[in-house]
Amino acid sequence: MATHVVCPHCEVVNRLPEDRSPGEASCGQCHRPLFTGHPLHLDAAGLRRHLERGDVPLLVDFWAAWCGPCRMMAPAFEQAAGQLEPRVRLAKVDTEAEPGLASGLGIRGIPTLILFKQGREAARMSGAMGLPQLLAWTRSHL
User: Fold this and answer.
1) What pLDDT shows up at residue 19?
2) Catalytic pick from 7, 10, 27, 70?
3) For the chain: N or C, fewer Cβ within 10 A?
C-alpha cells in the first residue's frame, strides 16, 4: 500500500511505496524533496489539499505576526519540523491572512496547535510550548 504525500513545493500528490524511505523521496513532478525539515506556510486551499489528499499526519500552528507567544514559539516549531518529519508534516497558518479558516476551525486564541490525522482533528492545544513539550505532546497523540 502506498502513502500519499502532497509536495510542499508544487502541491502535486505523490504516491510513495511502502518500501521507499520517505525522508529521501522527491516529487515526481518538480523533483524537489517531499520533506524539507521546515514548516510549510499554508493558506486555506493548501491546508485543504494536505488534509484531503495527504496521508501524513499534519501538525498546524495557527499564529499571527503581532502575537508575542507565537513569535516566542516559532523557533521551537521550526526545530520540531526537523525532528518530526517525515512521520509528521508541520505547517503554519497565519490567522490574520486566513480569518475565515481560523473562525471555521474554532480558533479562539493563538498560538493554537491542531494535529490532524487522516484529514480529521486528532488533538488541539492552545498556548506556547517549548521544543521538549511540543515534541512530547505531538508524539503522545500519534
Assistant:
1) 82
2) 70
3) N
Q: Structurally, how many domains does the chain consist of?
A: 1
Contact 49, 11 (CB under 8 A): yes
The x, y and z cell numbers of residue 134, run together, are 511540543
Sign (positive or negative) of CA dihedral 137, 8, 112, 108: negative
> 5, 22 in Cβ contact below 8 A?
yes
Q: Do the beta carbons of residue 77 and residue 39 sit within 8 Å?
A: yes
Q: Which domain holds residue 76?
A: 37-140
Asked if the structure places residue 134 within a domain, the reply is yes
pLDDT digit string (tens) for 71-121? 999 999 999 999 999 999 999 999 999 999 999 999 999 999 999 999 999
Domain of 133: which CATH number? 3.40.30.10
Helices 68-84 & 131-140 angle (0-180, nearest 10):
60
Compute the residue count for the chain. 142
Span 138-142, average pLDDT: 97
Q: Name the pTM for this structure.
A: 0.95
Catalytic (active site) residue 30: no
